[in-house]
TrEMBL record:
<feature type="domain" description="HTH cro/C1-type">
    <location>
        <begin position="13"/>
        <end position="48"/>
    </location>
</feature>
<dbReference type="Pfam" id="PF01381">
    <property type="entry name" value="HTH_3"/>
</dbReference>
<dbReference type="InterPro" id="IPR001387">
    <property type="entry name" value="Cro/C1-type_HTH"/>
</dbReference>
<protein>
    <submittedName>
        <fullName>Helix-turn-helix transcriptional regulator</fullName>
    </submittedName>
</protein>
<dbReference type="InterPro" id="IPR010982">
    <property type="entry name" value="Lambda_DNA-bd_dom_sf"/>
</dbReference>
Length: 82
């Protein structure tokens, strides 16, 4: 079974917030998550969930998924012969 994960490119989002004078708290409120969630995602302590991703893409239409998020899939390891 392959594992899939979505990660935040925190540098891109931090720069966006800074350039647009948006605080973490303002950002959190606009995307509909707790400020602590935004802080944890930005600091790499948790991966963004569906609500976070949806909120970013819905409320900040000038940001694209590929610009802000990193989607990784671990490919299944091939058959090993003994």
């Amino acid at each position: 079974m392959t594992k899939q994960a979505v990660f935040l490119d925190s540098c891109v989002l931090r720069n966006y917030l800074k350039e647009n004078h948006i605080t973490e708290a303002e950002f959190a409120k606009k995307i509909g998550v707790a400020h602590s969630t935004v802080n944890r995602v930005l600091n790499g302590k948790r991966n963004p969930g569906g609500k976070f991703i949806s909120g970013v893409l819905t409320e900040y239409r000038d940001l694209s998924f590929n610009e802000v998020f990193i989607f990784e899939t671990d490919l299944p390891k091939g058959n090993k012969s003994a």
